[in-house]
Amino acid sequence: MVNKSNLSEEDVKERYITPAIREKGWKPTDYRMEYEYTDGRITVLKNGTKRGKRKKIDYLLNYHENVPIAIIEAKDLNHTYDHGMQQGIGYAEGLKDYEALEVPFVYASNGEAFLEHDMITGKERKIAMVDFPSKEELWNRYKQEKGLTDNQIKAIDEPYYTTRESKQPRYYQRIAINRTVDAIAKGQRRVMLVMATGTGKTYTAFQIVYRLLQAGIKKRVLYLADRNILVDQAMTDDFSPLLSKATKVQNGKMDSSYQIHFALYQQLAGREEDAGHEPYRQFSPDFFDLVVIDEAHRGSAKQDSQWRKILDYFDGPNVTHFGMTATPKNDKSASNIDYFGEPIYTYSLKQGIDDGFLAPYRVIRVNLDVDVNGFRPTKGETDANGQLIEDRKYTSKDFDRKMVITNRTEQVAKYVSDYLKRNQERFNKTIIFCEDIDHAERMRTALVNENNDLVSQDSRYVMKITGDDNEGKAQLSNFEDVTSKYPVLVTTSKLLTTGVNVKTCKLIVLDQNINSMTEFKQIIGRGTRLDESHGKSFFTIMDFKGASRLFADPEFDGEPVDAIDDNDGTGIDFGSSRPHKKNPNDPNNGGSTVGEEPKKYLVNNKQVKIINSQAEYLDADGKLVTTSLRDYTKKNVLGQYATLDEFIKRWRESDNKQALLDDMEEHGIFYKEIIDDEKLNDLDPFDLLVHLAYNQKPLSKSERVANVRKSGLLDKYQGEARKILEALLDKYKNDGIADLENRQTLNLPEFEKFGGPVKIIVKIFGGKKQYQDAVSEVKEKIYS
To answer: Which of helix, strand or coil describes residue 506?
Structure first.
């Protein structure tokens, strides 16, 4: 007779839950057990990175592969049948630390009964194990409760595009696809999707277009972007399965024989003299029934935009405008939310980093003396070109826009180059964002001079890639190619802010005044893509202009992992984080000059210095905090356990100390790294943490073992049993608590003389319970 209370959660699943759903016709292909839906957050440490655990659920049941319909959360029989319900609901709608998986039905079970929660009606009911609903029952309930239209059902029944080689959508991509397809199938005419850079917007758009075309809900598609690189990437990569039905509009010529047209706004809008005869007028207003707007934050929403008239033209009663962006609010003028409405779904940078799908980042803030103190010319001073310099104080906002200090550019180039040399990262792909094209050219020259040894081997080691430079633009594909060694260090101004996919970019240098949150997010997005197969698991932001102050803005939802502020503590006035209005005559505004070009002064005789460094990091609130691994760990211990009593209570209540330590590690309590870094191998993690967080005097593991031996506890045991406990104490002293708790330790050579695990547990200790009780007593005495 099986003692059910001894059954593990895995036993309950295998013996009771899986047979119950199989009896109702659910096939193995209809559900996924231990479904892992995130990759586990990456944490940046001093000497590398650490992956957290993947989030997973016990069962995910699917009506179709693209339509999850139920979650089952299992517990062992030491819990009631309904114990896992709140956890299951958390998975379904994104409560606490979970991500929303958006399923309509949630079940909890311990193998004795099911509790059902209907996410649509909010009702719950207890059902017997033999009464679990079939797939068709759940589907019919879902259709009825949601009131699905024929078009919605047609869209749901159309699967994703997949092949044996192709990837399945991630959980958030599935939600984005399903929500968008459903909204369009219902007849919604304006739809916007917000997904952080690097999370697969174009792939998601392809799956949406594919399913709408396959279901017959849409017939012809216009895909609009404002850069050739965005159009070409979309066509050759994610949309390649539809290429036989697609064409790219070139020279303003449109071909009605194709189902999908990829086009630049600029080409279709034509020139001012084309008014009334613009290229887009080749087709009737109802020719396309789906218009996809890539990078919808840029200009398509402005009422007076040349591009907006394309949307206004293709806007019949059956036409849907579907916008995609990483930055939903355009802080320069009109909001795209005004045009599209609230996003149908948002997957943010913070979520992407938390889930482990995006690279986390650290920040190095670098302050130069001239930026902190400013520069004021002497009376009557002229610049290198003989111009009389206007007498006023020039600040960081002026440098490289109105005031060029040659040595400042050289010092930035030297700092970047020295950093790469010092860390043996000279072939890490790097983008340096400059104020304008002139600044990018000067920075290129300065970097060449700092790295002439590698430039002499291949001149492409340092390159300028800007809109005016055909040679540089010709190397862009090589810069993006993960297998291409060159270019390595690239200077730019605006060209690389969006649409460039450099997965292996590990360093982003900001030597540009950035007041637009939209632009800041787009620039940061150049580094967020992961490529662990090529050694890219995080990236570094090196900030010379205080742009990273925007991390503290409530509009920015991602927090840096670690920041180092090269600052002597005097501070620097970064000003407001809110955007400024741009001067329409500024050559940096959109990269073109309107009116007379502003005057620039060139100063060659001013020496600039880097101010001494101080290590700091930005916390989730955007506040600078002095950091070290110790400080970071202490902060996280106190965040979980505010008092010593709370910590000790949790420690004593835990049957498995190592499992508790593993959970702490998941929450940024990096005791292993501190022990390794500081060579504290004789310190128990418990002692390290109570000393670190609560200033308690620590005991060494040797002292704790000595206390156990002096306590007389071992005198309760005779012969081999005592010797085994003595040996386990030695394992604890040498290796740690995990070896004392893990029964696999009994397989080690030092325990062979006692006959191995079975003999030790059954014969020497009299059974599993007696062995566990003995080990528990030893653990209790260790920490008493």
So the answer is: strand
Pairing mode of beta strands 113-118, 105-109: antiparallel
Judge whether 65 and 160 are in contact, CB under 8 Å. yes
Contact, 35 vs 73, CB < 8 A? no
**Token digits of residue 689:** 């943490």
Enumerate helices (H) and strands (E) in the chain, giving the number of each. 29, 26
Give one word for 679, left, alpha or beta, with left for phi > 0 and alpha for psi -120 to 50: left
Using alpha carbons, select from 162, 204, 208 the residue that is nearest to residue 185. Answer: 208
| HEC sequence for 592-635 | CCCCCCCCCEEECCCCCCECCCEEEEECCCCCEEECCHHHHHHH
Query: Is 497 strand, coil or helix?
Result: coil
Q: What is the pLDDT of residue 438?
A: 93
φ/ψ of residue 124, rounded to 5:
-125, 150
pLDDT on residue 297: 59
Secondary structure class of 476 (helix, strand, coil): helix
Phi, psi of 115 (to 5 degrees): -110, 125
Q: How many residues does the chain have?
A: 784
Exposure class string for 464-496: b at 16+ Cβ within 10 A, else e: bbbeebeebbebbeebbeeeeebbbbbbbbbbb
DSSP 128-171: EGGGPPPHHHHHHHHHHHHT--HHHHHHHHSPPP--SSSPPPPH
Q: Tell me the DSSP string of 698-760.
A: P-BHHHHHHHHHHHTGGGGS-HHHHHHHHHHHHHHHHH-HHHHH-GGGGGSGGGGGGTHHHII
Tell me the sheet residues that pair with 700: 683
Of 447-451, 498-502, 770-774, least confident by mean pLDDT is 498-502
Distance CA 738, CA 728 (A): 11
Q: Two tokens at 118?
A: 């209907």
Band the pLDDT of 573: cuts 50, 70, 90: very low
Query: Phi first, then psi: what are they for 754, rounded to 5°?
Result: -95, 0
pLDDT at 602: 94
Q: Is residue 4 very low, low, confident or very high in pLDDT (cuts 50, 70, 90)? A: low
Q: What is this structure's pTM? A: 0.77
- Degrees to nearest 5, angle at CA 725 with 722 and 728: 155
Give the residue with greater pLDDT, 78 vs 624: 78
Are the C-beta atoms of residues 527 and 548 closer than 8 Å to each other?
A: no
In DSSP terms, 626 is beta-bridged to 616
Residues 6+ apart with CB under 8 A from 763: 755
Q: What does the alpha-carbon distance between residue 77 and residue 15 come to, in Å, rounded to a whole number?
A: 12
For residue 682, give both structure tokens.
């004789």
